[in-house]
Design brief:
- By secondary structure, the protein is mostly helical.
- Helices cover 60% and strands 7% of the residues.
- It has a two-stranded antiparallel sheet.
Length: 117
Amino acid sequence: MTIKSECYALLQAVVVARDILCRAPACDRYASASHHIFPRANLSTAFDPHYAIGLCVNCHVPWAHAKPDQFRQWVISWMGEDEYYFGLRKSHSIVKDVNYAEIREGLKRILAAYKKA
């Protein structure tokens, strides 16, 4: 596993530990997946738990991926327009050097804090 893959796996663990339940409206299943609100190729937000959401397997692909416009509208209403568009602008920021070791350690610290709670 590459260090970048480790970071993606840690982000998922952080988001699932934080959200516990699927964030989709009217769903009460346990979150089992982390969905990036902005494309994960956009490295400025790819590893920021604030821009990921916990979803169950029944909502992740069938809703967030299959109905992206509906999902985006819900995210905007959930997080607010100002925060959404701030994140969208941030996600388009160019990242030249990514320190995956630092990201990995930061995500490990966040995950440890959720596990203690």
